[in-house]
Amino acid sequence: MTTLLIQLPPEHYDLFAGACEITSAEYTILKNNIVARHQSREEPPMVEILCDMDEAKLLLEAARRLYPEAVPFIEDAMSVAPEV
Q1: CB 49 within 8 A of CB 5
Q2: 4, 81 Cβ separation under 8 angstroms
């Protein structure tokens, strides 16, 4: 199973999660798979979501429908995931 890390700026994370139904699988992934909310002086703040490729695909489809601003961040994480 391929594991990947999606990094979203906090404002995109909050708006994407807010656009999802709270009973949806996408919302559950966004809320339960957070590994860190980074804030450092050197890098912009990011919310990191650890998921597998199937979950990332589910998030990507939801982002395309509900919050397109999150799409490039999910696609970036998918593009650097190791092939299995």
Answers
A1: yes
A2: yes
| Mean pLDDT, range 18-28, rounded to an integer | 97
Residue whose structure tokens are 């404002």: 11
Do the beta carbons of residue 82 and residue 2 sit within 8 Å? yes
Taking the domains of the chain in order of start, what are their residue ranges?
3-79
SS3 9: coil
Model pLDDT for residues 30-62, shown as the tens digit of each residue: 999 998 766 667 778 899 999 999 999 999 999
Side-chain half-sphere exposure of 64, counting CA atoms within 13 A: 6
Name the one residue in this structure whose structure tokens are 């650890």: 50
Q: What is the pTM of this model?
A: 0.89
Asked if residues 80 and 5 have their Cβ atoms less than 8 Å apart, the reply is no
